[in-house]
């Protein structure tokens, strides 16, 4: 069998999966774009996009970006800390690494409901704790900023383990000799972290940011439970429009989300290609 | 390392705290939890009444069966599509395999809500809306890339010489798959199935749009919380979470950074 024939044979095995993806991912995506330009009578229109301005689309986009950036920063900070701990040997390391993965096993909806009990304005556990410390309690839904912060914190609990795992696999790949040499030269742990760990971890941080960034943009169940439709995010707005108005209008909101994700996918492939 | 241990303890509390609160609400009388202005941070009393009430007054069984059926179907379809795809990708040269892997990766990134809205319209027409196969077909989008990456990884570890040897001995592709490839990659294949199962079990976005009338468990939990049946939501959450945490710990080995990062090895 020639090399080409053989490759064709192997390619043949991947065809069912590729067809599946075409039918259930790419066709609906184009369908969404198509639907977003239709009105109820099935004619071409730009009205759906114009109408989105009544629903404060700029504010919605801004909220989505704020949640994404904020949640990424929290997860990166915590992930770096936890991964650094897990690269060392200590008693109870196995138990700790098991604990550190547990939130991954908790469904998003369960995490959302649990955090809704924590951040209730009356009868919430966060306020209970503040009260216990004799500190003033907080209205967690007083304004957009604090509501978005609640979403970021709750989401970070659930997703920090993924960031930790990605960063940990990066830290494991850094040669130990570098650290020994730096230690001999008198570099302390903080300087070793800044001058060895961070530069060597760059591409892993980039992967973690892009993978989580895409997911943060798509964040849905958690804000739906915690803050409902106010302040809106791109996903909750699309869902609200889907359940209350027309499929065409909700498709327009979804397409705006898709546009942002497409940029992130493009960046991802660029970074992926360089590796 | 003293400082390290303090960090370990703080992080451990951080990871366990929400689960502790969930368990506390589930097993405490409501007057100490959701009925209290400043609910106590420690257990005050123990009761099973919340759970008994939730499971007798609200429908747990139907959503449970739906979640179970959909997740199992998603797992099976993941293998049906993922085993051949994983095999093909593990044998193709990088310049052909890589674009296909990128295609899978992109699929994983397309927003659920973008895909779900037009599909719901199509499914109503095709009578797949609110059905078990319909939801499973859509949820497969999340799990297929992951399943394929895991299976491809385990197949790559099997030397090609074994395949050539099997061919020389006259084995057909099918018998090579059945007698050699699949048995030696079994741990990876089982993990791919279980991880697919787990992702479908947890999935919310597609479920709430494609299957809102006969919901899966996550959607049922959400509906209960919006209707104010908080104790039912907590009780269902607890029962719903325990098997997944056990599975997660069991599958720890396969939940590696590189698979989660989309399988493209860094």
Task: List the main descriptive attributes of the protein structure presented here.
heterodimer, A: mainly alpha, B: 266 residues, mainly alpha, MetI-like fold, 2 domains
Low-confidence parts of chain A: none
Strand content of chain A: under 5%
Radius of gyration of chain A using CA atoms only:
23 Å
- Order of helical and strand elements of chain B: HHHHHHHHHHHHH
Q: What's the oligomerization state?
A: heterodimer
Quick check: average pLDDT of chain B? 88
Count of folded domains of chain B? 2
Distance between the termini of chain A: 33 Å
Q: Give the amount of beta strand of chain B, in percent.
A: under 5%
Return the CATH topology of the largest domain in chain B: MetI-like fold
Helix/strand-derived category of chain B reads mainly alpha
The main sheet of chain A comes to: none
Helix content of chain A: over 70%
Family (chain B): Belongs to the binding-protein-dependent transport system permease family. MalFG subfamily.
Organism (chain B): Acidianus infernus
Membrane topology (chain B): Multi-pass membrane protein
Protein name (chain B): ABC transporter permease subunit
Note down, in words, how this protein is organized.
- The complex is a heterodimer of chains A (275) and B (266).
- Chain A has 275 residues and is mainly alpha-helical.
- Helices cover 76% and strands 0% of the residues of chain A.
- Chain A has twelve helices and no strands.
- Chain A has helices at residues 3-36, 47-52, 57-86, 93-101, 108-118, 125-132, 144-172, 176-184, 189-217, 221-226, 234-244, 247-274.
- The longest helix of chain A has 34 residues, at 3-36.
- Chain A is flat and about 75 Å long.
- The mean pLDDT of chain A is 91.
- Chain B is mainly alpha-helical and 266 residues long.
- Chain B folds into two domains: 1-46, no CATH class; 60-261, MetI-like fold (Orthogonal Bundle), CATH 1.10.3720.10.
- The longest helix of chain B is centred in the first third of the chain and has 31 residues, at 61-91.
- The interface between A and B is large, with 93 and 96 residues.
């Amino acid at each position: 069998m020639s090399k080409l024939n053989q490759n064709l044979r192997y390619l043949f095995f991947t065809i069912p999966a590729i067809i599946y993806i075409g039918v259930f991912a790419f066709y609906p995506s184009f369908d969404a774009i198509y639907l977003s330009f239709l009105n109820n009578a099935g004619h071409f229109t730009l009205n759906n996009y114009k109408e989105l301005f009544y629903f404060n689309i700029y504010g919605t986009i801004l909220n989505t970006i704020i949640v994404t950036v904020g949640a990424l920063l929290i997860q990166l900070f915590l992930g770096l800390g936890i991964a650094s701990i897990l690269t060392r040997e200590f008693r109870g390391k196995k138990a700790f690494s098991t604990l550190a993965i547990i939130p991954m096993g908790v469904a998003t909806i369960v995490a959302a409901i649990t955090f809704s009990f924590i951040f209730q304005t009356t009868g919430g556990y966060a306020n209970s704790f503040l009260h216990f410390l004799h500190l003033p309690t907080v209205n967690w839904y007083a304004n957009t900023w604090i509501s978005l912060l609640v979403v970021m914190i709750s989401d970070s609990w659930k997703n920090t383990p993924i960031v930790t795992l990605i960063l940990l696999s990066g830290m494991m790949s850094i040669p130990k000799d570098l650290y020994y040499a730096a230690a001999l030269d008198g570099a302390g742990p903080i300087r070793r972290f800044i001058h060895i760990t961070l530069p060597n971890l760059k591409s892993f941080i980039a992967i973690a940011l892009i993978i989580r960034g895409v997911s943060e943009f798509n964040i849905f169940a958690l804000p739906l439970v915690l803050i409902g439709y106010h302040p809106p995010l791109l996903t909750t707005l699309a869902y609200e429009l889907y359940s209350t108005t027309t499929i065409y209008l909700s498709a327009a909101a979804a397409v705006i989300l898709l546009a942002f994700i497409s940029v992130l996918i493009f960046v991802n492939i660029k970074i992926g290609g360089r590796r | 390392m003293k400082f390290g241990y303090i960090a370990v303890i703080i992080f451990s509390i951080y990871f366990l705290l929400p689960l502790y609160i969930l368990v506390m609400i589930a097993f405490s009388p409501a007057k100490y939890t959701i009925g209290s202005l400043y609910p106590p941070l420690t257990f005050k009393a123990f009761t099973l009444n919340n759970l008994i009430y939730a499971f007798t007054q609200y429908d747990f069984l139907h959503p449970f069966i739906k979640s179970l059926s959909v997740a199992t179907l998603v797992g099976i379809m993941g293998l049906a599509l993922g085993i051949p795809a994983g095999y093909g990708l593990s044998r193709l040269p990088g310049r052909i395999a890589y674009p296909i892997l990128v295609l899978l990766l992109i699929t994983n990134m397309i927003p659920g809500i973008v895909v779900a809205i037009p599909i719901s319209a199509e499914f109503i027409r095709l009578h797949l809306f609110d059905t078990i196969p319909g939801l499973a077909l859509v949820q497969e989008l999340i799990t297929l890339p992951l399943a394929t990456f895991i299976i491809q990884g385990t197949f790559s570890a099997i030397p090609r010489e074994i395949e050539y040897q099997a061919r020389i001995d006259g084995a057909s592709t099918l018998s090579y798959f059945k007698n050699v490839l699949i048995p030696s990659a079994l741990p990876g294949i089982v993990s791919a199935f279980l991880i697919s199962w787990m992702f479908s079990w947890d999935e919310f976005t597609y479920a709430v749009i494609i299957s809102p009338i006969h919901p899966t468990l996550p959607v049922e939990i959400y509906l209960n919380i919006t209707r104010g049946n908080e104790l039912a939501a907590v009780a269902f959450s607890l029962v719903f979470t325990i098997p997944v945490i056990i599975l997660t710990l069991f599958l720890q080995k396969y939940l590696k950074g590189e698979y989660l990062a989309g399988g493209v090895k860094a």
